[in-house]
């Protein structure tokens, strides 16, 4: 098992943002997290990547406990992520933005770079070449020297994904990768995620486009008010009464059931 979550809880004062969540993610899966706004999905990601420390529970990555580790240490173990809001260096080139994703994974120190030592130069060239390959993978070959802020919204999302991939993570976390995209752009991101999985990276994604997730993911967990209310294959999730209630509301479900009974 690549990732095993055992009863993690996160509280902010009296607010319980995530409550006693357990789940498992297998190597090679595309795993979806869905749920209404405020359900705790991004807080869950923040615990996986060390931004928040769980108040309770364990996070095991390749059987190694990682809860409470600093984000850079978790990244070194092979977990990388994107964010809901695009976080690019807008005045830097696309290539430079992707190369930043290798920060903390290179071996040459600060003084090596300042003194222009051969080891630092060789390593920078390797990072540059790896970044070019990742840009080709995400469909941005030829955009290397463009400024990040000159790209379309969809391509900026691709740059962010490339930056997360350049460190060759074992697990990639995508926080709403298709937010703000049209149907064609969304389909292209789906194809890219399949390609990422084919290259050996396991993917967990948060997404509000439920129909898209159902056709993409091997396994889906559903959060509501900080709790995991379902965890199963898409065919089971889509018919789960608790999931339907979480999305359209209890009163609407009861109204629909009453209408169906009287029809």
Automatic annotation (TrEMBL):
GO biological process: D-alanine transmembrane transport; L-alanine transport; L-isoleucine import across plasma membrane; L-valine import across plasma membrane
PROSITE patterns with a match to the protein in the record: ABC_TRANSPORTER_1, ABC_TRANSPORTER_2
Gene Ontology CC entries for this record: plasma membrane
Keyword Transport: yes
UniProtKB keywords: ATP-binding, Nucleotide-binding, Transport
Regions that span the bilayer: none
Highest taxon of the lineage: Bacteria
Any Pfam family matching the protein: BCA_ABC_TP_C
Domain ABC transporter as annotated: residue spans: 3-250
A Gene Ontology molecular function term of the record: L-isoleucine transmembrane transporter activity
Record flagged with keyword Transport: yes
Signal peptide range in chain numbering: none
CDD domains: ABC_Mj1267_LivG_branched
Name of the molecule in the record: ABC transporter ATP-binding protein
């Amino acid at each position: 098992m690549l990732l095993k979550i055992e009863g993690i809880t996160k509280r902010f004062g009296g607010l319980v943002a995530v409550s006693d969540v357990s789940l498992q993610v297998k190597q090679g899966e595309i795993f979806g997290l869905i749920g209404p706004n405020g359900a705790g999905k991004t807080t869950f990601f923040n615990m996986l990547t060390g931004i928040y420390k769980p108040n309770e529970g364990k996070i095991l990555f390749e059987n190694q406990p990682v809860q409470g580790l600093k984000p850079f240490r978790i990244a070194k173990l092979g977990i990388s992520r994107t964010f809901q809001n695009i976080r690019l260096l807008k005045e830097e080139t696309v290539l430079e933005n992707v190369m930043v994703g290798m920060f903390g994974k290179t071996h040459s120190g600060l003084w090596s770079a300042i003194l222009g030592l051969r080891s630092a130069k060789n390593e920078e060239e390797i990072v540059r070449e790896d970044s070019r390959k990742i840009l080709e993978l995400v469909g941005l070959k030829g955009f290397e020297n463009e400024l990040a802020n000159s790209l379309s919204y969809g391509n900026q999302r691709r740059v962010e994904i490339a930056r997360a991939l350049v460190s060759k993570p074992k697990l990639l976390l995508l926080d709403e990768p298709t937010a703000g995209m049209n149907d064609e752009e969304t389909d292209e991101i789906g194809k890219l995620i399949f390609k990422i999985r084919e290259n050996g990276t396991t993917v967990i994604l948060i997404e509000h486009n439920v129909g898209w997730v159902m056709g993409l993911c091997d396994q889906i967990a559903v959060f509501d008010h900080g709790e995991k209310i379902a965890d199963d294959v898409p065919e089971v999730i889509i018919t789960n009464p608790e999931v339907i209630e979480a999305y359209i509301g209890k009163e609407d479900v009861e109204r629909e059931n009453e209408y169906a009974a009287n029809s």
